[in-house]
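Predict the structure of RHS repeat-associated core domain-containing protein.
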Amino acid sequence: AQQATLGPDRGTGYVWTHDPASGEIIGQITLTSTETVAADTGGRIADPGDVRGWDQERVDAEFFALVADLAGAPHEIIDPVTGDVVGHTNQTLYGKRTWHGEQSSPLLFTGQYYDDESGWAYNRFRYYHPDAGVYNAQDPLGAGPRIASAQGYVNHPAHWVDILGLMAHTANVQKVNGRNPINSRFAGREKPLSQKGIDAVMAEPDVYAKLPKNSAGDPVIPFNDRGFPEFDSVVVELPATADGATSVTRGDFTLPSELHESTVYQQEKWLDSQMGITAEQRSAKGWTWHHHEDLGRMQLVPSSVHGDVRHTGGWAIWGGGKR
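Done. Here is the predicted structure for RHS repeat-associated core domain-containing protein.
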């Protein structure tokens, strides 16, 4: 819940409800009071109109449905009992809006909470000014704000959102056989392993140590801008022999062109020979040959990781389609 104080004689608090599947805000609960008696809030006296000190009996909760545009910006507020539109807004392309009717909402674009007093909208890592269409500072990651452009926010706010207030990023997802790659929604980001996958790699300390970790410390697999997983960090490497006759062997090879459309058995037979292992040894170690999206490229990776991260690979792009 978030709250705003609107004056000495009236306080208003908001609670927003989300669609559990998409995370989209679909409703707003408005908490209002017209009482002016100050409330005790944990040893201090709250300002008149401050909703934080209310007890349940002083709270009048009203639920309203929000109708948003494609980018998640609320445009209408609906009374679910009567079906009447009790609030609607006019909005400029980059977020300046004027509410009409009995109800309003401080939400602007997705991830933004507007402060009427300052004229700025909180956008997690930065503040956004809807009048000017710009941020108040450079991107925390180091990219400058797009003040010199006509927009400064995102390329097109009717289709794009910037939930965290960071630099706009365009993925270069490429369709495979007419469809986006599996899990391409992670393009340019990291996909966490499932709990089953985490349990599996925890049993393989060497693999676990090589995997990138997110801020929570959980193992992840990065996806490139094209929507394909990057297993480079866990590619199998065999140590050099003690006599020095064989150097470190990294399981990252390019198949001869004549094997691009051969069976998986033929491809793996050639690859195993390059690696100096047998199919039985590979299976016992829990390793899998991964078809990279680049033509003919194959990588030997742990089956525990490869099997946990659903993806579209080279098999669908350049493989022969024969097992």
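The chain has two domains: 2-135, 184-317.
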